[in-house]
Structure formats: structure tokens, C-alpha cells
Amino acid sequence: MATEIVNLYKESFPDVRFIGKRYLDGDRDVNGSFGPKWDEWMENQWFDPLLPMAAGFVDGDATLGFMQFAGGVFEYWIGLFCAADSPVPGGYQSFDLHAASIATCWVKGGMESGEIFGEEPCMQGIKAIEAKAWRLAPDSWFYERYVDSRFLQKDDEGKVVLDYCFHLSS
């Protein structure tokens, strides 16, 4: 079962504060995944204190896996976009992003097989962006956006959609 891009478009958001927790390569499981960290978030209901600050804002209650290289170190953050002036609850970390334009790719495929996660679907998204002649921002970041209506609702073939959002050059 192969992944496919079923939608590609540009969107933007205002200044935001990302609130969540930061993970590094050493936090991956033996398969190279951050999946157990997501399980920990769900089991501990760590999204719950953030939802009031995110509801109706940018991605609403869509959970995010935000990725960037900071000083040559890969960072994977789990959390939500919140209003720029949101307080950071104890036990969480944050960083601020300025208003940005992004390219959003809807990648459709099997969740259980893991085919919608990782480098391959990301590269597929980047190629689709380049085919549109859109440019990624220098020192670009990107994120996985888990929108319940697409990610948790399987189609007739058992496939779901995961959004990959890439920072574009202005």
C-alpha cells in the first residue's frame, strides 16, 4: 500500500506560541519512532490543559508533531499551537513563531503499516511543493498535523490522512 498526496495548498497563521514537550533523537524507540511518546501524551491526557488555549485558534484541537533542527540538533515537539500570549503551564515548554506561510500536504495511506510517517512521505510532500515552484524557507521547520476528522476516520480502504505542513519562504 503506497502513500499518495491527496491535497496540497498554501495557508498562513499569525504569531503563535507552541506549547508542549521537546524530544531529541535519544527519545526515539528502537524503531526510530516517537510513537511511545505520543502514547504517553494520550495516557496522561497532557493535551487537556492546552486545549482551552488552542480551541478555535489556528489548528484548533489538532495535535502537532513539530520538527526542526536547532543548532544542528534535531528536535521533535509534541503539543499545540496556542495564542501568542498564552501562559505556559507547569511541566510544559514553549517557543514562539512569527506569522508564517506554510504548504500543507495531505498524505493518505495506512496508519498501522506506518507508511504515512517518516522520511518518505515528507520527501513526497517536498517534491510536490517543488513541483508547484513554491520555496521552503531557509532553516525550514515542518510539522505533522493530526486532524481528527481525517486522521481518525478510515476510508473504505482503511486509509487515513495525515497533514504535513512545511514552512515556506515569504
The gross shape turns out to be: globular
Instruction: Give the DSSP E fraction (strand runs of 2 or more residues).
Output: 35-45%
The count of DSSP E runs of length 2 or more, i.e. the number of strands, is 8
Main-sheet strand order equals: 1-6-8-7-3-4-2-5
Averaged pLDDT? 91
Give start-end ranges of low-pLDDT stretches: none
Distance between the termini: 36 Å
The helical percent reads 10-25%
Give an overview in words.
There is one protein chain. By secondary structure, this protein is an alpha+beta fold. The protein has helices spanning 35-44, 51-54, 119-131, 148-151; strands spanning 4-13, 16-23, 63-70, 73-83, 93-97, 100-109, 142-146, 160-167. An 8-stranded antiparallel sheet has the order 1-6-8-7-3-4-2-5. The longest helix is centred in the C-terminal third of the chain and has 13 residues, at 119-131. The protein is globular, with a radius of gyration of 15 Å. The model has no long low-confidence stretch (mean pLDDT 91).
What attributes does this structure have?
alpha+beta, 170 residues, single chain, 8-stranded antiparallel β-sheet, globular
Mind sketching the topology for me?
Elements: E1 4-13, E2 16-23, H1 35-44, H2 51-54, E3 63-70, E4 73-83, E5 93-97, E6 100-109, H3 119-131, E7 142-146, H4 148-151, E8 160-167
Antiparallel strand pairs: 1-6, 2-4, 2-5, 3-4, 3-7, 6-8, 7-8
